[in-house]
Amino acid sequence: ARKIRIAAAQMGATHLKDDRKETLDRMLALLDDAASQGAEVVLFPELAFTTFFPRHLINDPDELSSFFEHGGVTESPSAKPLFDKAREVKVDISVGFAEATDAGERFNSCVYYHAKTGSILSKYRKVHLPGDFEPFTDPEATNQLEKRYFKPGNLGFESFRVPELALSSEPIFGMMICNDRRWPEAWRCLGLQGVEMVLCGYNTAGFAPHLWGSDAKQDPQQAEEDAVFHHKLVMQSNSYMNATFSVCAARCGMDDGKYSLIGGSCIVDPEGRIVAEAKTKEDEVVVADCDLEICRAGKTRTFDFGRHRRTEHYSRITDQ
Ligand code: CDT
């Protein structure tokens, strides 16, 4: 057995004007909770330290800057206590944040932080940025201005090994962020590296007819049900098709009394089954024991890529 106890730290409503210290305190409490349940790795959501600010048009540069971590996330005063706590409780964390580089670039990023060595093992920058550069003209529409605030990620989909986890051999991890989970190419890039555990934090609007754009989704309740269905569909199917576990952590709930984000944080096994999932749309820790050994069946049989893929027919995927 190569067992890992993994946790998704789901975060409920986080409002635009919430004090960042309060949000950070919630994250510290979630980490304590997960640690007390014996979790070895805890995944936090996309852009976990603030509200989902890309829904707002923010023209004031100082205000916009206040949502970003500057000078390296582990040293940024508004994020550092989380990494310090991870070291203290000896639990690895993966967390999403808005990254401002010294060169003035901005990305929607996440890191995997190795508690034992106090170092970042891997960083990922979101590749698939949904939404638009310009806000909608309809004042009722919910914006998704990720193309305005972030550059597309430039680090690719790189798997990485985590030392001293899972006993007999080091597990292979990969990370993606929110909208990436809807793109099979992202999963396949990790799958081709033999990934055994995919981490994905997200903020998914429950009702955003201008974004999802289908008549069937005009009813907010139906729209949210569909959004949860599609979320689970992509997590379960892509985990199965790449013979990997996956963990996803939501920022969810009703932000500012009017922006609904779906819950549905869960842990999926390589057969595509949900083995643990959130019961609320609030701060909640979801924990599961994952035996990475069971990835082997899919990787050596149905999805033995070396034996069964026919790459001569796949060139359209990258040529177009
Ligand atoms: N944050 C993020 O990437 N959200 C997207 C919304 C898509 S457009 C409503 C998602 O794929 O969940």
From TrEMBL:
Residues 4-292 form the CN hydrolase domain. GO terms for molecular function: amino-acid racemase activity. Coiled coil: none annotated. It comes from the Eukaryota. Belongs to the HyuE racemase family. This is CN hydrolase domain-containing protein. The chain holds residues 2 to 321 of 615 of the full protein.
